[in-house]
Amino acid sequence: MTQIVLTPDQVKLYHQAKEPVQVCDTQGKVLGTLPPEYSAEFIAELKQRAKMPGRRYTSEQVTRHMKALAEAWDCEGPLDKQRVKEILEQLRAEDSL
Question: Is 71 found in the same domain as 47?
Fold first, then answer.
């Protein structure tokens, strides 16, 4: 197997990442994506947050909401906060059915 050894600075950046890290060539072309290495403290924080009350959305719902907002933007142009709120309220009502 071929290996590429990261510099100490690159390793530090990877270990600090909270989201996937893209590996690119010198022209910026993405060659691959590394998943983040989550610390025990970070995982504990996520578990604590999950216990908090509040609305939860599936990834499918979030994707649908984002697509609907993008479609509205394409049809109506830039959306103000009130219009975004209206669209999301409508979608959330549909989710409740």
Answer: no
